[in-house]
Amino acid sequence: ACGVAAAEHEIGAQRQNFFQQSVIDGNVLRLRRKLRQRGIACHPSHRCDLRAIGKLQQQITFGTDRSALADADLVIEAVVEDLAVKQAIFADLENIVRDDCVLASNTSSLPVSAMAAGLKHPERVVGLHFFNPVAVMQLVEVVRAQQSGDQAIATAFAVTKQLKKSAVLVVDSP
After folding, report:
1. Residue 11: which of 80, 63, 69 has the closest Cα?
2. Are 91 and 85 in contact (CB under 8 A)?
3. What does pLDDT average to over the chain?
4. Backbone angles phi, psi at 146, to 5 degrees
5. I need a labelling partner for 135 at 20 to 30 A (CA). Which of 18, 161, 165, 174 fits?
């Protein structure tokens, strides 16, 4: 399962990006199977029709209650570019999610290593930078922080592949 941690005023934009990518129920890695289980057919191009998207919208809950992310396999932080805010969110999430949950940041300018510093499990933190507009741009940077473990990096690449995006590994920099 996958979740997006966003500020209350950003929920609408995150919801739009979510549906433009045809991601359902927070389950990125098993998207097609989940769609079939719910009786939603997608076109061979992997884009769902408008009726299917309407069904998806009824099945996904967006909000600012982070406790809903407790069982997530991956959480993507997508808030304002402020290191202190991102660190606080990751610290809070670490107390909510499972120990094996990957924490990703969509930052475009801040060091991911600094976000991971001080966490109990810094090895699970990666950067997952989607370029805007997300629905159009195919490139995603997978940022390896100093502490990023191989499993977190592998998960980030698996997610981008499932989303039909082109991922490139980049080294974290200040």
Report:
1. 63
2. no
3. 76
4. -55, -35
5. 174
What would the 3-class secondary structure string for 101-137 be?
A: CEEEECCCCCCHHHHHCCCCCHHHEEEEEECCCCCCC
Q: Look up 129 and say whether it is catalytic.
A: yes
Give the H/E segment covering residue 5.
strand 2-5
Taking only the tens place, the pLDDT of each residue in 122-152 is 999 999 998 887 777 889 999 999 999 999 9
pLDDT score of 72: 82
Question: Angle, to 10 degrees, between the axis of helix 11-20 and the axis of helix 50-59?
Answer: 130
d(CA 15, CA 63) in angstroms, rounded, equals 10
Distance of CA 128 to the CA centre of its chain: 7
Query: Across the strands, what pairs with 42?
Result: 48
What the block records as the tokens of 68 is: 């809903």
Among the listed residues 9, 43, 121, 129, the single catalytic one is: 129
